[in-house]
Write a structure and sequence with these properties.
With 154 residues, this protein is of the alpha/beta class. 32% of the residues lie in helices and 22% in strands. The protein has one domain: Glutaredoxin. Strands 5-4-3-6-7 form a five-stranded mixed β-sheet. Strands 1-2 form a two-stranded antiparallel sheet. The two termini are 25 Å apart.
Length: 154
Protein backbone atom coordinates (compact mmCIF):
# COMPACT_ATOMS: atom_id res chain seq x y z
CA UNK A 1 0.00 0.00 0.00
CA UNK A 2 1.05 3.56 -0.57
CA UNK A 3 1.50 5.86 2.39
CA UNK A 4 -0.21 9.21 2.89
CA UNK A 5 1.93 12.00 1.47
CA UNK A 6 2.79 9.94 -1.63
CA UNK A 7 2.01 11.36 -5.06
CA UNK A 8 -0.40 9.19 -7.05
CA UNK A 9 1.54 7.19 -9.67
CA UNK A 10 0.97 8.11 -13.31
CA UNK A 11 -1.39 5.69 -15.01
CA UNK A 12 -3.79 5.26 -17.89
CA UNK A 13 -6.53 2.62 -17.79
CA UNK A 14 -9.75 1.91 -19.68
CA UNK A 15 -13.04 2.35 -17.87
CA UNK A 16 -16.13 0.14 -18.17
CA UNK A 17 -17.03 1.83 -21.47
CA UNK A 18 -13.56 1.46 -22.97
CA UNK A 19 -12.74 5.16 -22.47
CA UNK A 20 -9.21 5.86 -21.28
CA UNK A 21 -8.81 7.49 -17.88
CA UNK A 22 -5.48 8.99 -16.81
CA UNK A 23 -4.15 10.05 -13.45
CA UNK A 24 -4.04 13.62 -14.82
CA UNK A 25 -7.86 13.62 -14.58
CA UNK A 26 -7.52 13.60 -10.78
CA UNK A 27 -6.19 17.16 -10.72
CA UNK A 28 -8.32 19.87 -9.19
CA UNK A 29 -10.66 17.84 -7.00
CA UNK A 30 -10.68 15.21 -4.29
CA UNK A 31 -10.89 11.61 -5.50
CA UNK A 32 -11.48 8.30 -3.79
CA UNK A 33 -9.51 5.64 -5.67
CA UNK A 34 -11.36 2.51 -4.61
CA UNK A 35 -9.59 -0.80 -5.33
CA UNK A 36 -12.02 -3.71 -5.09
CA UNK A 37 -11.17 -7.41 -5.47
CA UNK A 38 -13.93 -8.65 -7.81
CA UNK A 39 -16.83 -7.04 -9.64
CA UNK A 40 -20.20 -8.42 -8.56
CA UNK A 41 -18.80 -10.36 -5.61
CA UNK A 42 -20.96 -10.02 -2.48
CA UNK A 43 -18.63 -7.83 -0.38
CA UNK A 44 -17.63 -5.63 -3.32
CA UNK A 45 -21.27 -5.15 -4.22
CA UNK A 46 -22.13 -4.07 -0.67
CA UNK A 47 -19.19 -1.65 -0.66
CA UNK A 48 -20.12 -0.30 -4.08
CA UNK A 49 -23.75 0.15 -3.06
CA UNK A 50 -22.66 2.10 0.02
CA UNK A 51 -20.54 4.39 -2.16
CA UNK A 52 -23.37 4.72 -4.71
CA UNK A 53 -25.89 5.53 -1.99
CA UNK A 54 -23.55 8.19 -0.59
CA UNK A 55 -22.80 9.72 -4.00
CA UNK A 56 -24.62 12.98 -3.21
CA UNK A 57 -22.56 13.41 -0.04
CA UNK A 58 -19.37 12.77 -1.98
CA UNK A 59 -20.40 15.34 -4.60
CA UNK A 60 -21.18 17.91 -1.89
CA UNK A 61 -17.69 17.26 -0.49
CA UNK A 62 -16.18 17.83 -3.94
CA UNK A 63 -14.97 14.25 -4.16
CA UNK A 64 -15.15 11.94 -7.17
CA UNK A 65 -15.24 8.15 -6.82
CA UNK A 66 -13.19 5.98 -9.18
CA UNK A 67 -13.26 2.21 -8.80
CA UNK A 68 -10.27 0.08 -9.85
CA UNK A 69 -9.86 -3.68 -10.24
CA UNK A 70 -8.20 -6.39 -12.28
CA UNK A 71 -11.54 -7.22 -13.93
CA UNK A 72 -11.98 -6.67 -17.68
CA UNK A 73 -14.09 -3.71 -18.82
CA UNK A 74 -17.02 -5.96 -19.82
CA UNK A 75 -17.38 -7.35 -16.30
CA UNK A 76 -17.13 -3.89 -14.77
CA UNK A 77 -19.72 -2.58 -17.23
CA UNK A 78 -22.24 -5.33 -16.47
CA UNK A 79 -21.78 -4.79 -12.75
CA UNK A 80 -22.00 -0.98 -13.00
CA UNK A 81 -25.22 -1.26 -15.01
CA UNK A 82 -26.76 -3.85 -12.68
CA UNK A 83 -25.99 -1.70 -9.63
CA UNK A 84 -26.63 1.73 -11.21
CA UNK A 85 -23.16 2.90 -10.28
CA UNK A 86 -22.64 6.47 -11.44
CA UNK A 87 -18.87 6.34 -11.13
CA UNK A 88 -16.14 5.03 -13.39
CA UNK A 89 -14.71 1.55 -12.92
CA UNK A 90 -11.20 1.14 -14.30
CA UNK A 91 -9.73 -2.13 -15.56
CA UNK A 92 -6.14 -3.10 -14.80
CA UNK A 93 -6.17 -6.59 -16.31
CA UNK A 94 -2.38 -6.93 -16.43
CA UNK A 95 -1.96 -5.74 -12.79
CA UNK A 96 0.62 -3.15 -13.90
CA UNK A 97 -1.10 -0.24 -12.14
CA UNK A 98 -1.98 -2.42 -9.16
CA UNK A 99 1.72 -3.01 -8.62
CA UNK A 100 2.32 0.78 -8.67
CA UNK A 101 -0.37 1.21 -6.02
CA UNK A 102 0.84 -1.69 -3.87
CA UNK A 103 -2.43 -3.63 -4.11
CA UNK A 104 -1.16 -6.71 -5.95
CA UNK A 105 -0.97 -9.82 -3.81
CA UNK A 106 1.97 -12.20 -3.61
CA UNK A 107 2.05 -14.76 -6.46
CA UNK A 108 1.62 -17.69 -4.04
CA UNK A 109 -1.48 -16.10 -2.43
CA UNK A 110 -4.59 -18.13 -3.30
CA UNK A 111 -6.28 -14.82 -4.21
CA UNK A 112 -3.41 -13.47 -6.34
CA UNK A 113 -5.82 -12.78 -9.23
CA UNK A 114 -7.55 -10.12 -7.11
CA UNK A 115 -6.23 -6.81 -5.76
CA UNK A 116 -6.25 -6.04 -2.08
CA UNK A 117 -9.30 -4.12 -0.82
CA UNK A 118 -7.58 -0.76 -0.44
CA UNK A 119 -8.73 2.80 -1.08
CA UNK A 120 -6.79 6.02 -1.40
CA UNK A 121 -8.20 9.47 -0.71
CA UNK A 122 -6.37 11.79 -3.08
CA UNK A 123 -6.31 15.57 -2.73
CA UNK A 124 -6.71 18.04 -5.62
CA UNK A 125 -2.91 18.17 -6.04
CA UNK A 126 -2.63 14.40 -6.60
CA UNK A 127 -1.28 13.59 -3.14
CA UNK A 128 -2.64 10.65 -1.15
CA UNK A 129 -4.04 12.07 2.07
CA UNK A 130 -5.43 8.85 3.56
CA UNK A 131 -4.95 5.14 2.89
CA UNK A 132 -7.69 2.69 3.83
CA UNK A 133 -7.08 -1.04 4.25
CA UNK A 134 -10.80 -1.77 4.09
CA UNK A 135 -12.23 -4.49 6.30
CA UNK A 136 -15.73 -3.21 7.07
CA UNK A 137 -17.27 -2.68 3.64
CA UNK A 138 -20.50 -1.28 5.12
CA UNK A 139 -18.65 1.54 6.89
CA UNK A 140 -16.20 2.52 4.16
CA UNK A 141 -18.23 5.36 2.60
CA UNK A 142 -18.99 6.87 6.03
CA UNK A 143 -15.33 6.65 7.01
CA UNK A 144 -14.16 8.44 3.86
CA UNK A 145 -16.80 11.15 4.22
CA UNK A 146 -15.73 11.69 7.82
CA UNK A 147 -12.10 12.08 6.72
CA UNK A 148 -13.13 14.53 4.00
CA UNK A 149 -15.00 16.57 6.60
CA UNK A 150 -11.99 16.59 8.94
CA UNK A 151 -9.58 17.59 6.17
CA UNK A 152 -11.87 20.39 4.97
CA UNK A 153 -11.88 21.88 8.48
CA UNK A 154 -8.11 21.59 8.93
Amino acid sequence: MLDPGTRVPDFTLPDQDGQLFTSAALAGHWTLLWWYPKAASPACTIEGQELRDSADDFRESGCHIVGMSFDPPEENKAWAEAQSFGFRLLSDVDHRVGRLFGVEREPDDQYSDFPLRVSYLVDPDGIIRKTYAVSGVEEHAVSVLSTLDELSRA
